[in-house]
Amino acid sequence: MSPPHYKLTYFNMMGRAEPMRLMFAYAGVPYEDNRIEKEQWPALKSHMPNGQIPVLEVDGKQLSQSMAISTFLAKKFGLDGKDDWESAKVQEMLGTLDDVKLKFRPWMMEQDANKKAEIFKTVLTETIDPYLERLSETLKKNGSGYFVGQKPTQVDFHLFHIFNWWQQGNIATESIKKHPELVAFTEKMGSNPKIKQWLEKRPKTAM
Amino acid sequence: MVNHSYKLYYFNMRGRAEPARFLFHLAGVPYEDVRIEREDWPNHKEEMPWGQVPALEVDGKKLAQSAAIYQYLAKQFGYNGKNDWETAQVQELLGSIDDIFSAMRPVFMAQDEAEKKKVMEKIVADTVIPYLTRLQKRFEANGTNYFVGNSLTVADLVFMVTFASFKDRFAPGVIEKFPKLDAFVAKVSQEPKIKEWIEKRPKTDM
Fold first, then answer.
1. Which residues of A are catalytic?
2. Do A73 and A107 sit in the same domain of this protein?
3. What broad class of enzyme is this (chain A) (predicted)?
4. Among A107, A170, B99, B103, which residue carries the largest CB count within 10 Å?
């Protein structure tokens, strides 16, 4: 039986596709990293079954929604926890991360530099700092160096991407520094040879 | 076979807990349907992981996030698709309806009725109608009267609950523009165990 052919379509940026790209790299599984430019999107949109990207194509069948894609791949790569309860905890953490990302959106959409800075201050105190506090507690309590269970799960890749992106963009640096275990987690994930190799060779984009 | 002890924590409303309540009822599995009054919530918030409800407690361990809860219960009770691809489709559909709710948030936040109506009309036209158009096509293409595979999954339950709440409250007249989806709600609501829960559940506004 031949291995499945995977094609991941997204914009030429990290965004919602990067955790999946990290998992492909970690698992050593080849895939087509199909990046489209923003100008191409309007024409392509009507061809995507759900009018959105990222889309994962597996032997010609298409799947949209980043969490569905991430979880489908995580299961294939052994990155979805050791049992149903761990998988559920993984989903719980992905959901809370998504809630946090939603709160970022006003900051990301704001064009005016002054307003942007003001919004960020609020996002930092109301959302980022409390969230990092909870993450740090979860990591310490779990005790394995990973967020769920004893081995890496897709949550670790989603969170590594965020921390790595923030590091790159000098976002919330002071906040992260308050949590040495989160800093250590980021370093540990980043120093994995397969992940390191991907970080070095991937196209460099701001987001 | 191990019997687990289940508790579901939420407010005294259908809202985000209802698909989980349907799953318990469909599976014939007993659970404690804990309904917290709004005034009492501050006393319970810190008991919940992430300070939110719904939360599911299984043998004393708690789980938050409605999607996590639905998929866990659906997996336990056999309503999460028959293979990894179907399970992925279930999750895809759950994610897509959640996006619609996020898009509708400005409607829930609007201050007065006039503003609410204006904001709603725009979101319905720009986002909800295109989504439902695609969704109806997908439903028809699947050809089984269910959204995934050929039997009921938690995706069907979430759609039924959501579309019913659109019809009754959040976006009256919208689902009715999609005859196949409208018929789906009516048909699924008539399945014996589903009908049973609809009839016996506590009657609340939302």
1. 10, 16, 107
2. no
3. transferase
4. A107
B 13-32: CB under 8 A from A: none
Q: Do A56 and A90 share a domain, yes or no?
A: no
Domain total in chain A:
2
Query: What SS3 class is residue B55?
Result: strand
Identify whether residues A112 and A70 lie together within a single domain.
no
Nearest beta carbon to residue A91 from set B67, B92, B138: B67
DSSP A64: E
Q: Which value does ipTM take for this structure?
A: 0.94
pLDDT tens for B45-91 read 999 988 999 999 999 999 999 999 999 999 999 999 999 999 999 99
- Burial letters for A135-155: b for 16+ Cβ neighbours within 10 Å, e otherwise? bbebbeeeeeebbbbeebbbb
Q: Which of A68, A89, A134 sits opposite B92 (nearest CB)?
A: A68
Confidence of residue A30 (pLDDT cuts 50, 70, 90): very high
Alpha carbon A27 to its chain's center: 16
